[in-house]
Amino acid sequence: MSTDSVLQLPDPPDLLRRFVETPLEQSVILEGKRVLVRTNHQGCYELLSRHAGSSEADTCDLTWTIVSDTEMSSDLGEATLMESGSVAVLSFGRGCFMALQRDRMELIGFISNSVDEHKLEEIILPRIRELIATPHSDRISHA
Amino acid sequence: MPFRGTLAIKMLRTHSLESEDLALKLTLEIAGCRCLFSTNNRSLFDSVSRWRSHWELGSGPDFEIRVIVDPQLAREANALPQFRGLRQFVFAIFHSRETFLLDLFERRVTAVVSEETAKDQEFWNSVLIPITMGVLGPTMGVAPIHSACLAWNNTGMLIAGVSGAGKSTLAVALAKEGFALVSDDWTYARCEDGGVTAYGLGVPVKLMPQSSRYFEELAAQRLKVSLNGELAFEVDPVEALGVQVAKRCTPQCVVFLERSDDDESSVTPLDREIARKFFYKSAEVLPPELQNAITGRGEIIDQVTSRDCWLFRYGGTPQQGARALRRFFEERYDVDRLCAAAS
User: Fold this and answer.
1) CB contact under 8 A, A83 and B4
2) What is the pLDDT along chain A (143 residues), one digit of tens a residue?
3) Complex-level ipTM beyond the 0.95 threshold
4) How far is the C-alpha of B65 from the C-alpha of B122, rounded, in Å?
C-alpha cells in the first residue's frame, strides 16, 4: 500500500499571520494609562519611544499587539469605527485595522509595513489615543 | 501631549452595531447551526434568505451576524480580499473598505458594507457564509474538513487528497454517476444524534481550466479569478453540470485519492491514524487562546476518521475513476439495501 502522497502535506502556512513574532516591547504612558506595547513595526516602536512617557510599573492597564505586515497595502483609506458590545474595530482602508477588546483591555491589529512614521503619528495613533480615552458609552452617544 | 494629530485627520465614520440598533432580524440555519442575522437593510435579507429557518429566539443562536449597510460607502471593484487573525479575532477586508470582524469568543461577525455588497447574493452565499463557517465553526461544534462529499441517498463518502489530486473533478464525475454532490472542496462535519453529519454549503463547484477536457458543459462557461487568485471555472453544479446536490448526509467512509500513471484502479484500506493526521494537518492552526475550539475540532476529526478509511489509486479519466469507485461503494456499502432498511 502506498501512502506517500497522502502524507505529503506540508505544515499549514500561517495564512492569517497569527503567529508573527512581535519582539519589540516597551511600556509607555498614554492618556494616563500604562500601556504594554508589543510590535514588530520598527517605526511604531521608535515613535512611541520618542513621544510617549515610559512606564516603570510592573503592571499595565492596557496591552497593544501591533503586527507589521509586508503584504498589506499602504493605502490608508477613510477611518471607520465599528462598535459592538465591548469590541471596537478601527480600520483605515486596507492599510491598517485593529480591534480593541475593552473587557480584556487589549488592542490588537495589523499595520502595513509601508505606513511611515509620519502617517502613524498624524493619522493612526491619534485615533487610537481617542479610542482608549473615550468610554464606550460616550462614543456611542456621539455616533 | 503626544499623538494629537496636527495635520487634518481623515474623517472618522462611526457605526454602532448593537443588536438594538439593527431592527431587522432573520433566523438562519447554516450547517446545522442557528444564526441570528441582524441588519438595517431589507435587500440584505433577500441576499441571505436561502438560509432562512424558523427557530425560537428564546433558545439562543449558536452565532450572530450583525451588518450595517452604509449608503455612503462605495465598493471598490477588483480588490482581492485580505484576511488576518490574532487571538480570538479574524479580520476580513473585502472591496477595500468593507471590514468584517469575526470574533471567535463571542461567535459573532460584525461588518459595515455598501449597498452594492448588500445586494450581492453571490458574495454572501459563496464567500462570506463559507468563510464564517470555516472560521467560527470550530467554536460551535462544526469542523471544516478539507474534502469533497458525495451522498447516495443519505449514505455519504468523503473524498480527500492533497492539493491537485483531483477531488473536485472526481466529485463531479461521481455526481454524474448518480451520487448527489454535497460539497466539492470543504465539508462541514458536526456531531449530532450520536453520529456525524456532513454538511455542504451549496457553493459553486470550482474546477481547474483543464477540467473542460472531461466535462463538455464547461465549454459554455467562463473562467474567473477565484478567491485565492487562481483562474478556474466556478459553476452551479445543478445548472451548469446537470447533477444532483444534497445539503447533508451521514458519512460512512473516507476515501483518499492518489493518482497513478496507469489506467488501473484499486481501493485498499488506509490506516485511520494516517487519515486522522491528514485532517489535523490540513486544518488551520489555531492559537492557544482557542483551546476549546482546537479540542472540539479534534474530536470531530476523530469521529470522522473512525469511519472506514480507504486509499483509492486511479489513473485514466475522472469518469473511469468514478465508475470504479461507484462499483466499490455499491458493493461495499450495499447502499440500496441500507436505504431500504432505513426506510
Assistant:
1) no
2) 455 555 567 777 888 999 999 999 999 988 888 999 999 999 999 998 887 777 777 789 999 999 999 989 888 888 899 999 999 999 998 899 999 999 999 999 999 999 988 899 999 998 998 888 876 655 544 33
3) no
4) 17
Query: Domain boundaries in chain A?
Result: 24-136
Q: Distance between alpha carbon B197 and the CA centroid of its chain, in Å?
A: 14
pLDDT in tens, B140-166: 999 999 999 999 989 999 999 988 889
Q: Give the single-character DSSP code of B246.
A: -
Residues of A with CB below 8 A from B93's CB?
91, 94, 97
Strands B308-314 and B186-192: unpaired
Q: CA Rg, chain A, in Å?
A: 18
- B110 contacts in chain A (CB < 8 Å): 82, 84, 87, 89
A54 in reach of chain B (CB within 8 A): no
User: Taking Cα atoms as reference points, which of B280, B324, B279, B252 lies closest to residue B160?
Assistant: B279
- pTM of the predicted protein model: 0.91
| B residues 66-125 lying closer than 8 A (beta carbon) to A | 66, 68, 79, 82-91, 93, 96-97, 99, 101, 103, 106, 108, 110-112
Cell of B151: 451522498
